């Protein structure tokens, strides 16, 4: 005779959640919340935009964070960062507009590339400079 402490109806949800957290541990992505990921995104591309910072007014959680970005063209966006990627959720800082159905981008680079020609130019120039520096290093 076997005793159980849980309702069998709860099993599918529990099992799914446990599998998901095991998978995250396996992938090494067991992050406390998306804020850390958002900070890393900001640090990666801040040099190529006018302004970029993690929102302090919109709530960060385990599965979502919001990033405000102002392109060099002076356009403002609020970006949502989730496991699915990044997408524009509003055309101003610290806002979300549920009516916006913008596509997810896997990386901040592709998202900014689609929004800002000036970003594309600055980022491209930075890559060229880095390649030139590597080329000089390898020749010496």
From TrEMBL:
Superkingdom, taxonomy of origin: Eukaryota
Domain GSKIP: 34-134
Single GO MF annotation: protein kinase A binding
GO CC term (a single one): cytoplasm
UniProt-listed GO biological process terms: regulation of canonical Wnt signaling pathway
Family statement: Belongs to the GSKIP family.
Name of the protein in question: GSKIP protein
Species of the source: Chloropsis hardwickii
Taxonomic lineage: Eukaryota, Metazoa, Chordata, Craniata, Vertebrata
Gene: Gskip
């Amino acid at each position: 005779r076997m005793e159980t402490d849980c309702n069998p109806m709860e099993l599918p949800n529990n099992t799914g959640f446990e599998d998901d957290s095991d998978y995250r541990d396996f992938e090494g992505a067991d992050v406390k919340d998306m804020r850390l990921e958002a900070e890393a995104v900001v640090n990666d591309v801040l040099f190529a935009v006018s302004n970029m910072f993690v929102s302090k007014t919109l709530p960060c959680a385990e599965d979502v964070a919001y990033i405000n970005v102002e392109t060099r063209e002076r356009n403002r966006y609020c970006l949502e960062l989730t496991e699915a990627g990044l997408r524009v959720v509003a055309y101003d800082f610290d806002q979300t507009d549920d009516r916006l159905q913008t596509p997810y981008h896997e990386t901040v680079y592709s998202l900014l590339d689609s929004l800002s020609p000036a970003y594309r130019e600055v980022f491209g120039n930075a890559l060229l400079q880095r390649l030139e520096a590597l080329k000089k290093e390898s020749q010496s």
